[in-house]
């Protein structure tokens, strides 16, 4: 047995008052909480006056409807869909069709091409299938364009362009019991058939806008950061926004996107107003080019080793070496409040909670001190300080964001006391009765996180007997086996974060999921199974495991400032995650596959 971990270092002889910080956090939360919660947002539909069209796709694209048959349809062309396609190809599936709403592969990295876009996870572990493609990223934290091009390279390498359907949205999945296959209908009149369907429509696929009164009356220019209008701003993702040289620009939102956009707006626009409800925590980025000698020294298996090392470090599994060694791994203890694990189960609960909180206070004090050191105006610096626990909002990293507020043409407008922007007029953004006249409003307001097409109802799924999947979950509760399959919906696989385990490097999670699905499909093909469907007993046992293992994060999230992690201040009382964490979950899947688990999902042909 390993020795119990000592998490109490630093709890004694503190140079701050924990109770004072708790009170400050509560007060700052109350300034920002809204009774309408997540209802304050609306979907990006174009009705608000903000264009929701794809700026990168062929505008007049048409094609004839398809009425053919393939072995597997993958819904979504982001990294989840690409990994599903790649792993299915490796499992021997030849006819694979990826259906993607955008004009090409890339998912999040197809839509988001705003100035300064980079990944905040190290590229050597974030970009999947590097060894398979023989590629090493150029930077420790890759820019968006490199990531998008890598997504396309994966598709080429695994032949996923061959049957792909772009600028196409799946509108219905319906199981045909007689033929034991899915009917896939789309907004282009397609009615294709597939033996297997994998849905990976993404957790960052539906852009959202704040429901600000008057938003549709603004006569200037508007766009969402996921639809960046370079025809208006000039430049590209590397900057050079020359079209803004004489423009007054409003940016609404200060999350991970704004952290990267603001420095470019500040450098090029005549005037920038940054409208902030809650400041992000901003740590050091420290990006650097890839060392060519290091790249040459890499041995086969290096990426898998590095990915596993990162996952273990950030989830509290003790390692002899931290291969990634960045701000994520140095704050590993604090991430337990977003991604629970069993790594600290040997520490008494009360001691563990106090240690978490003290370490959290120390980290946030450090980040608030960083603001004071960088931002010259004391009043602005005070507004930029994050007063909440570290994992209440996704941490951000930048070496230029805070510095931008030292520019004379950049103004921070705090909206906490008005709970956001009050209204928008024909020519201005209004906060606290003050009108800020602008030529352009850019919405850096993110996505409806975690709401895939299946969960939002935009992708209706009808299984055996015409029963709806979403309706089944709403009336009988969420029931799956390992989060991937559901009884009554044969040969349907869902990638995501329901009833399994996640991590900050979600692409690694998606790869583990895609590999698992591909192995199940490979066994179904090998054994000539009629279809894949979990038994009632296996599904019920997994739901019971989820309930038994679920971590209680409600109190922590309820005390957080509102954001998408806690459903805008109204966290869900019950977690649907596997409480022992991703490392344990991945090991559980490996054991399940090797120890006869296929018996729980493979339905043999009759006779």
From the N-terminal CA to the C-terminal CA, the straight-line distance is 51 Å
Mean pLDDT: 93
Name of the CATH architecture of the domain at 69-206 and 449-549 and 583-603: 3-Layer(bba) Sandwich
Radius of gyration: 24 Å
Shape: globular
CATH topology of the domain at 69-206 and 449-549 and 583-603: FAD/NAD(P)-binding domain
Number of strands: 21
Strand content: 5-15%
Spell out the CATH superfamily of the domain at 69-206 and 449-549 and 583-603: FAD/NAD(P)-binding domain
Structure description:
With 607 residues, the chain is an alpha/beta fold. Among the domains are: 33-54 and 207-280 and 393-443, FAD/NAD(P)-binding domain; 69-206 and 449-549 and 583-603, FAD/NAD(P)-binding domain. The chain is built from 20 helices and 21 strands. The strands form 6 sheets. Strands 2, 3, 4, 5, 6, 18 and 19 form a 7-stranded mixed beta sheet that branches. The protein has a 5-stranded parallel beta sheet with strand order 8-17-9-10-13, covered by helices on one side. A 3-stranded antiparallel beta sheet has the order 14-15-16, with no helix packed on it. A hairpin with a 4-residue loop joins β4 (170-176) and β5 (181-186). α2 runs parallel beside α17 (506-526) and α17 (506-526) packs parallel to α20 (582-594). The protein is globular and about 75 Å long.
């Amino acid at each position: 047995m390993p020795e119990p971990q000592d998490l109490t270092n630093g709890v004694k002889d503190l140079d701050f008052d924990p109770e004072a910080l708790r009170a400050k956090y509560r007060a700052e939360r109350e300034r920002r909480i809204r009774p309408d919660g997540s209802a304050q947002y609306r979907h990006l539909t174009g009705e608000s006056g903000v264009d929701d069209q794809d700026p990168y796709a062929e505008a007049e694209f048409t094609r004839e409807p398809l009425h053919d048959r393939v072995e597997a349809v993958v819904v979504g062309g982001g990294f989840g869909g690409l990994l599903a396609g790649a792993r299915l190809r490796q499992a021997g599936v030849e006819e694979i069709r990826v259906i993607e709403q955008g004009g090409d592969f890339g998912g999040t990295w197809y839509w988001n091409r705003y100035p300064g876009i980079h990944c905040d996870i190290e590229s050597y572990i974030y970009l999947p299938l590097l060894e398979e493609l023989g590629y090493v990223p150029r930077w420790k934290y890759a820019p968006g364009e490199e990531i998008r091009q890598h997504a396309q390279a994966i598709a080429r390498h695994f032949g996923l362009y061959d049957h792909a359907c772009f600028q196409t949205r799946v509108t219905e999945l319906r199981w045909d019991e007689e033929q034991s296959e899915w009917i896939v209908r789309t907004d282009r009149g397609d009615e294709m058939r597939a033996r297997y369907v994998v849905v990976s429509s993404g957790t960052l696929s539906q852009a959202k806008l704040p429901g600000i009164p008057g938003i549709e009356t603004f006569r200037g220019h508007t766009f969402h950061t996921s639809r960046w209008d370079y025809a208006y701003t000039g430049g590209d993702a590397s900057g050079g926004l020359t079209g803004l040289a004489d423009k007054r620009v409003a940016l609404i939102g200060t999350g991970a996107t704004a952290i990267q956009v603001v420095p470019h707006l500040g450098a090029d626009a005549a005037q920038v107003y940054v409208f902030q409800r809650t400041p992000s925590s901003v740590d050091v980025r420290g990006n650097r080019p890839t060392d060519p000698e290091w790249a040459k020294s890499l041995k086969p298996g290096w990426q898998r080793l590095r990915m596993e090392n990162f996952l273990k470090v950030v989830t509290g599994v003790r390692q002899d070496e931290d291969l990634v060694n960045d701000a994520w791994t140095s704050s590993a203890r604090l991430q337990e409040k977003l991604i629970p694990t069993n790594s600290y189960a040997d520490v008494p609960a009360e001691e563990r909670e106090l240690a978490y909180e003290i370490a959290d206070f120390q980290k946030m004090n450090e980040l608030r001190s960083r603001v004071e050191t960088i931002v010259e105006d004391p009043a602005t610096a005070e507004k930029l300080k994050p007063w909440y626990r570290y994992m209440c909002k996704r941490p951000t990293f930048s070496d230029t964001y805070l510095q931008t507020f030292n520019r004379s043409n950049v103004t921070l407008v705090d909206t906490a006391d008005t709970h956001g922007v009050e209204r928008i007029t024909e020519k201005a953004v209004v906060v606290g009765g003050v009108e800020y006249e602008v030529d352009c409003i850019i919405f850096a307001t993110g996505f409806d996180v975690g709401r895939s097409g299946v969960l939002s109802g935009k992708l209706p799924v009808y299984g055996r007997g015409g029963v709806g999947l979403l309706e089944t979950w709403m009336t009988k509760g969420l029931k799956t086996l390992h989060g991937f399959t559901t009884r009554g919906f044969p040969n349907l696989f869902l990638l995501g974060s329901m009833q399994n385990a996640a991590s900050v490097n979600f692409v690694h999670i998606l790869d583990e999921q895609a590999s698992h699905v591909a192995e199940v499909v490979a066994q179904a093909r090998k054994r000539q199974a009629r279809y894949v469907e979990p038994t009632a007993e296996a599904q019920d046992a997994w739901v019971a495991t989820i309930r038994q293992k679920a971590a209680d994060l409600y109190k922590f999230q309820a005390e957080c400032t509102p954001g998408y992690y806690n459903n805008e201040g109204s966290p869900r009382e019950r977690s649907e995650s596997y409480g022992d964490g991703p490392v344990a979950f991945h090991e559980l899947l490996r054991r399940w596959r090797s120890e006869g688990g296929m018996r729980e999902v493979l339905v043999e042909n009759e006779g």
